[in-house]
């Protein structure tokens, strides 16, 4: 049995490694094509990863990527494509910021209140797409894309000074949150502060694994993703599962913006990071929807983000990092499918070979006779 | 004169059976049967001959000339055509349109094509009408359209993959008449089947394939079905007959006036009523597509009845969702195990959980219990003789028969009160077939009620205590399995007979005996 486990690890690692190698190679080709040194930018970026202040930035950024990618991944696990994580986390962060600016409870209540606000806002927003899919058959891809656009408009509306907005210079904000809703960071001295909610990201990753792999609900969800028809025949109600998964995905998405909101900015302004939901899609893909894989992928993405500005100081364009992210996503899609098929075939062949050799679990006389007869 | 010659064909292929050193010679103007158990490698071999797969070793010669196919188009150019088991016709087009589709260059799409179709149809006695919509045709007529499609493209060697699987006995005879016409005109036919009676009646020569390799050839005049069967399986053929009746008077499943309609209001099932008692196997005979799938769906809860009542013991379950039905003791061996019975890319032990995730040993409360599920999977693998190196391999890496044994083991492990067995031995080799029959019989003795749906009439007659015939969504006839022949059942399946079917002339046992001889 050990052999098959090793096999699984090999297969799990082969996909990302091939994808990354291909992406690095292609990026190097882009650099050569533009007449630049193909190696030095990478060397510079690797060097950046060694600095402790950059490391703190990477971890902080990765925590948000991680939560967003988990939200996408939970949809992927049952063949739902929640492309609306972007709208969900922005709206949720804004609602949390508004509640945080207008309510002032003791920290022990305020912080859970803000988390729940974000969770419910995100779930509400994705739930609209879920209800539409279940009742009217609207594709969740279309619905969530539309909801992203609507979320942007809703945010613009809430920013109006007559609603919840507070103008600070040219910037739209929601006003500063009461300090009871601030989550203290982990002080790293010179290097800066790691957001307190990085711990939340870790806990969410553990929870994601436990729910999916160790609960009945998780089994039903994975079964639905693997084969909708088999899941239905096994007793899963497909509609209820779609709705539940959509709500869970949105709930997770709602938390994605909170590490920076509650740990640093304390207000939802024009400077609030956007696009994390879309990056989360690529990260979830690269991480193969597994909590550990996504952690690595999120760190990689954050590293590309935070190490690339240095390139500008050395005559390179920092956009090389963005090109690289794009290439990674492309190669990931191709290499995973290839590795998956290869792995499946390889296993079928090995099972065939093992059976032919008589290695049957609980082999009895019957089996040996059959093999001898060939 | 040989039409096709395959020599030393070897195909290393994912799965348990690969082709190994296959030799097959088809003479011109003959029907050559290729027989073997399901999973012996017949379909793989034909895919190689039809250019869908490339052999790793060996040669193919057509009319004495060595060829190498890289696609079915190459094979068609060489005059090799294939009639697939599952028809590839567009329902909303006419026969003419279906035939010319993709070969518009041959005879155009108008009058010339129509004349050609007429000519072919007349010459080979196919009786194809070019301007009828395919959706209006029955299964047998569709099959003739498929044959004509192949002839239209200039095929001189036809491969027919299990052509009789979807036909009732009368239609089979008609098909065989068509095949005789074809060979009289000098065409060659490769006829794939695992039904020995048919093979003996239509073939000029027979090649037997077993575990991926050709084990011999035979001429029908000099061989018996028993000899063929022994070549095929290397052991005695099992029979599905059940010895003594175990039927009790305790109803387990009662269906009353069940009706199911399409959204458009067309009845898929109409006025279905029956009772299955503890220890009883109720067999449903019928040509596929007459409501069997819908009946199973309604019983397991994938579709809900528009009217009518379903009762399990004395509880009404009509409105219960699938999960509750399964928890309360309905076992389900689905017709299509890949779509409804397995997660192909999940390990065996997760497949053991599928369908019973809320039950012991798979779960404790809301938590899964992977350890217990794994242990129980090991038990099932041994008790049901699932051939696998371990329980962590994916379901996809097992052969069809072993997948089916796993499903049967899983369903039986939860001690069902009522078992839905839809084609329980379809695509399963003879050994596994016997084992599955044994398990069903065993459970029946202990009071299990079984609804058996099967296209294999011998299986139906052999296992069932009561037989009903389904036609166009209605139960039109019933029969005593001890007193009926497959032919008589086949007549009723076409809708030609109704009411209680009586066996004519010969007493019950004599009828069965004669039937066994003929097979």
TrEMBL record, chain A:
Keywords: Cell membrane, Membrane, Sugar transport, Transmembrane, Transmembrane helix, Transport
GO cellular component terms, A-Z: plasma membrane
Chief location bin: membrane
Species this protein is from: Streptomyces calvus
Protein name: Simple sugar transport system permease protein
High-level lineage: Bacteria, Bacillati, Actinomycetota, Actinomycetes, Kitasatosporales
A Pfam family hit: BPD_transp_2
Protein's membrane topology: Multi-pass membrane protein
CDD domains: TM_PBP1_transp_TpRbsC_like
MF (Gene Ontology): transmembrane transporter activity
Membrane-spanning segments: 9-34, 54-76, 88-105, 111-132, 141-160, 194-212, 242-262, 320-339
Location in or out of the cell: Cell membrane
UniProtKB/TrEMBL annotation, chain B:
Topology versus the membrane: Peripheral membrane protein
Keyword Methyltransferase on entry: no
Signal sequence interval, chain numbering: none
Intracellular or extracellular location(s): Cell membrane
Domain ABC transporter: start-end pairs: 4-236, 253-497
Ranges of compositional bias, category Basic and acidic residues: 500-519
Stretches the record annotates as Disordered: 494-519
Keyword Nucleotide-binding included in the entry's annotation: yes
Keywords (A to Z) from UniProt: ATP-binding, Cell membrane, Membrane, Nucleotide-binding, Repeat, Sugar transport, Translocase, Transport
InterPro entries in alphabetical order: AAA+_ATPase, ABC_carbohydrate_import_ATPase, ABC_transporter-like_ATP-bd, ABC_transporter-like_CS, P-loop_NTPase
Molecular function via GO: ATP binding; ATP hydrolysis activity
GO CC terms in record: plasma membrane
Principal location: membrane
Name listed for the protein in its UniProt record: Simple sugar transport system ATP-binding protein
């Amino acid at each position: 049995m050990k052999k098959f486990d090793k096999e699984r690890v090999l297969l799990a690692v082969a996909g990302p490694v091939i994808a990354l190698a291909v992406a690095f190679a292609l990026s190097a080709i882009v650099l050569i094509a533009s007449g630049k040194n193909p190696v030095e930018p990478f060397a510079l970026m690797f060097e950046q990863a060694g600095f402790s202040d950059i490391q703190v930035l990477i971890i902080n950024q990765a925590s948000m990527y991680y939560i967003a990618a988990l939200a996408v991944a939970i949809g992927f696990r049952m063949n739902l494509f929640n492309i609306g994580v972007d709208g969900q986390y922005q709206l949720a962060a804004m609602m949390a910021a508004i509640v945080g600016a207008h309510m002032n409870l003791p920290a022990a209540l305020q912080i859970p209140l803000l988390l729940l606000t974000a969770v419910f806002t995100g779930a509400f927003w994705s739930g609209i797409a879920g209800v539409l899919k279940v009742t009217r058959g609207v594709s969740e891809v279309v619905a969530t894309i539309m909801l992203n656009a609507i979320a942007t408009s809703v945010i613009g509306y809430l920013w109006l000074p007559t609603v919840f907005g507070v103008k600070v210079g040219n910037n739209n904000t929601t006003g500063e949150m009461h300090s009871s809703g601030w989550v203290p960071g982990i002080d790293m001295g010179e290097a800066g502060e790691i957001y307190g909610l990085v711990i939340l990201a870790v806990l969410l990753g553990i929870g994601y694994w436990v729910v999916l792999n160790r609960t009945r609900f998780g089994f039903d969800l994975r079964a639905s993703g693997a084969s909708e028809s088999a899941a239905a025949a096994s007793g899963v109600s497909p509609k209820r599962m779609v709705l539940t998964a959509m709500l869970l995905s949105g709930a997770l998405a709602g938390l994605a913006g909170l590490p920076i909101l509650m740990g640093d900015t304390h207000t939802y302004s024009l400077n609030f990071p956007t696009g994390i939901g879309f990056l989360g899609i690529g990260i979830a893909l690269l991480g193969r929807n597994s909590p550990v894989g996504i952690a690595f992928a999120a760190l990689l993405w954050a590293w590309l983000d935070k190490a690339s500005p240095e390139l500008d100081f050395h005559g390179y364009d920092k956009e090389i990092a963005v090109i690289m992210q794009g290439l990674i996503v492309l190669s990931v899609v191709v290499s995973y499918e290839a590795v998956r098929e290869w792995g499946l075939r390889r296993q079928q062949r090995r099972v065939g070979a093992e059976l032919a050799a008589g290695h049957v679990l609980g082999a009895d006389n019957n089996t040996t006779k059959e093999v001898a007869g060939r | 004169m040989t039409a096709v010659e395959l020599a030393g064909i070897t195909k290393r292929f994912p799965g348990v059976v690969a082709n190994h050193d296959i030799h097959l010679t088809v003479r011109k103007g003959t029907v050559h049967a290729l027989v073997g158990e399901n999973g012996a490698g017949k379909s793989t071999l034909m895919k190689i001959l039809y250019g869908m797969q490339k052999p790793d070793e060996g040669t193919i010669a057509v009319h004495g000339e060595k060829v190498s196919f890289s696609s079915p188009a190459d094979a068609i150019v060489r005059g090799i055509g294939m009639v697939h088991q599952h028809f590839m016709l567009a329902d909303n087009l006419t026969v003419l349109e279906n035939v010319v589709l993709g070969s518009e260059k041959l005879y155009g799409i108008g009058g010339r094509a129509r004349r050609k179709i007429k000519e072919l149809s007349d010459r080979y006695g196919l009786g194809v009408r070019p301007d009828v919509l395919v959706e209006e045709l029955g299964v047998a007529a569709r099959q003739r359209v498929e044959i004509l499609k192949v002839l239209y493209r200039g095929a001189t060697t036809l491969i027919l993959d299990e052509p009789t699987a979807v036909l009732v006995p009368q239609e089979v005879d008609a098909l065989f008449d068509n095949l005789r016409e074809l060979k009289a005109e000098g065409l060659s036919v490769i006829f794939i089947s695992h039904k020995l009676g048919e093979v003996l009646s239509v073939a000029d020569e027979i090649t037997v394939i077993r575990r991926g390799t050709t084990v011999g050839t035979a001429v029908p005049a000099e061989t018996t079905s028993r000899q063929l069967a022994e070549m095929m399986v290397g052991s005695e053929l099992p029979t599905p007959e059940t010895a003594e009746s175990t039927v009790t008077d305790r109803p387990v499943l009662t269906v009353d006036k069940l009706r199911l309609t399409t959204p458009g209001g067309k009845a898929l099932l109409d006025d279905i009523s029956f009772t299955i008692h503890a220890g009883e196997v109720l067999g449903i005979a019928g040509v596929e597509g007459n409501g069997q799938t819908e009946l199973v769906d309604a019983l397991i809860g994938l579709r809900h009845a528009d009217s009518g009542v379903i009762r399990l013991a004395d509880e009404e379950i009509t409105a219960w969702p699938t999960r509750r039905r399964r928890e309360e003791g309905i076992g389900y061996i689905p017709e299509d195990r890949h779509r409804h019975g397995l997660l192909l890319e999940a390990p065996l032990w997760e497949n053991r959980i599928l369908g019973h995730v809320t039950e012991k040993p798979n779960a404790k409360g809301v938590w899964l219990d992977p350890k217990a599920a794994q242990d129980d999977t090991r038990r099932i693998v041994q008790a049901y003789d699932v051939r696998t190196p371990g329980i962590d391999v994916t379901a996809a890496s097992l052969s069809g028969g072993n997948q089916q044994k796993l499903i049967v083991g899983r369903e039986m492990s939860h001690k069902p009160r009522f078992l839905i067995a839809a084609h329980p031995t379809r695509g399963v080799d003879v050994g596994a077939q016997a084992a599955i029959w044994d398990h069903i019989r065993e459970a029946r003795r202990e009071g299990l009620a079984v609804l058996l749906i099967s296209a294999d009439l011998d299986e139906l007659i052999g296992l069932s205590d009561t037989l009903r015939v389904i036609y166009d969504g209605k139960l039109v006839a019933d029969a005593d399995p001890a007193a009926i022949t497959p032919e008589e059942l086949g007549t009723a399946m076409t809708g030609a007979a109704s009411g209680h079917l009586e066996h004519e002339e010969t007493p019950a046992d004599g009828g069965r005996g004669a039937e066994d001889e003929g097979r």
